[in-house]
Design brief:
Order of helices and strands: HEEHHEEEEEEHEEHHHEEHHEE
Distance between the termini: 56 Å
Helix content: 40-55%
CATH topology of the largest domain: Jelly Rolls
CATH architecture of the largest domain: Sandwich
Strand order of the largest sheet: 3-10-5-8
CATH superfamily of the largest domain: Jelly Rolls
Largest sheet: 4 strands, antiparallel
Structural class: alpha+beta
Radius of gyration: 21 Å
Strand content: 25-35%
Shape: globular
Length: about 250
C-alpha cells in the first residue's frame, strides 16, 4: 500500500504564508490515509484491535460518486457492503406507479447493501448520492470470511439493523397515525441530532433533502411542509436561512 509523506507523521504542521500561523493538515489523497479514515469512522469496526483493523484494510476498495449519481438500483446491482466514508445518500423504494418513498438517510459511518449480501436476493432499493460521496466497499465473499474471523463485526451489524428496524416501525406509525405537527417535530429532532451544528443563536441544520423530498420522507405534500415551516418561523421556533438551512432558535428561559 502506497504511503505519502503525510502518513509517516500522521499529521504535518505546515506554516501558513500569510500571518505566519501554523495549521494542522491531514492527508486526504493517499491510499493509506483513505483506508485509515474509513476504518475509524465506522461503528461496526469500533471493537476491533489495531491488528484486526489492518486485516480489514487489506480488503477495502474505495469508490467515488458525484452528487445525484445512482450507487445502487435494480438495474445496477452490486453484491458488496458499502460503508460511507464521506458524504450522504438517500435509500428509496420506488412503487409500480413510479413514486418513491425515502426509507433512510445515511451519512458517515453508515452502511448499506446488506440485503443482497446476506440473503442473495436482489435488492429493489435505489441509493442516490445527495452530495459528492466516498465509499469503502467489501465484496460478499470477503465480508463473509471476515464475519467468521471477527464475529464482533456481526454483532455490530445486528445492532445497526435493529436500530433501522425501529426507525422503520416509527416511520410506519408516524405515517399512519401521527398528526402533522408531531411528524415535523420528530423530523427536526432527528435532523438536529444528525446534521445540526451549535451556534450562539441556536442549532443550524444543513438539510440533506429538498422540500419535495422532505414531504416524501414525512408522507405529506410539499405545500403542507412549506406551510408548517412558515408557521414555526412565525412562532419564533426556527428561522429559514436560505438554501436548505434551518436555524432552530434557542428558547429563552
Amino acid at each position: 500500500m502506497r504511503m505519502c509523506i503525510f502518513c509517516v507523521f500522521e499529521m504535518v504542521l505546515l506554516k501558513c504564508i500569510l500571518g505566519g500561523m501554523f495549521v494542522a493538515v491531514s492527508c486526504q489523497q493517499c491510499e493509506f490515509c483513505n483506508h485509515h479514515s474509513c476504518m475509524h469512522r465506522v461503528p461496526i469496526f469500533s471493537s476491533l484491535t489495531n491488528e484486526e483493523m489492518k486485516q480489514v484494510q487489506q480488503i477495502i476498495v474505495h469508490r467515488y460518486y458525484k452528487k445525484g449519481e445512482y450507487i445502487l438500483s435494480p438495474l445496477k446491482p452490486m453484491h458488496c457492503l458499502f460503508i460511507l466514508n464521506e458524504g450522504k445518500v438517500k435509500v428509496v423504494r420506488v412503487n409500480q406507479s413510479g413514486k418513491e418513498q425515502i426509507l433512510y438517510l445515511l451519512s458517515i459511518g453508515d452502511f448499506f447493501g446488506e440485503t443482497a449480501l446476506f440473503t442473495g436476493i436482489p435488492s429493489d432499493i435505489v441509493v442516490e448520492a445527495l452530495e459528492d460521496t466516498r465509499l469503502c466497499t467489501i465484496s460478499k465473499a470477503q465480508f463473509s470470511a471476515l464475519l467468521k474471523q471477527l464475529p464482533d463485526i456481526a454483532l455490530k451489524v445486528c445492532e445497526e439493523l435493529t436500530h433501522r428496524l425501529h426507525r422503520m416501525e416509527t416511520m410506519v406509525e408516524s405515517l399512519g397515525s401521527k398528526p402533522v405537527d408531531e411528524r415535523m417535530d420528530d423530523l427536526l429532532k432527528e435532523f438536529s441530532k444528525k446534521y445540526g451544528k451549535y451556534t450562539s443563536e441556536g442549532i443550524l441544520i444543513q438539510l440533506p433533502l429538498s422540500r419535495e423530498e422532505l414531504a416524501n420522507y414525512l408522507g405529506l405534500t410539499r405545500e403542507t411542509v412549506s406551510r408548517k415551516l412558515a408557521k414555526l418561523q412565525n412562532e419564533g421556533v426556527l428561522k429559514l436561512m436560505g438554501h436548505k438551512q434551518i436555524l432552530l432558535i434557542h428558547r429563552k428561559k
